[in-house]
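Human: Note token order:
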Amino acid sequence: MASSLVLTKIVHFILVRYLKEFVAQTKSDIDDAILKIITKPLCIFVVFTGFYFALKSLSVLAPYSTEINNVFFVGAVIIAIADYIPYFWRGDKSVVEGAIYDSISLLL
């Protein structure tokens, strides 16, 4: 579990420090919006995955393997969409700009 927290810090550092500088150099704003959108859920997902593997390694919980898998699958889906729903529900284009907003809103 502790290793997932360290990995989360590393992932966040790479996204904010290096990838943010790289996408700032491009001409389009789509990659900036994508990076802004995925940073928080990706870090939460890394912690969530670490917690999943920590539970799966406990032999005491082996009989509940199917239930653990189901709970973590639902949790992963919720993590993936939780940050996006409020913006689309309100029609807020301040976080998701231009073409990316239009593309995703067509799917919803």
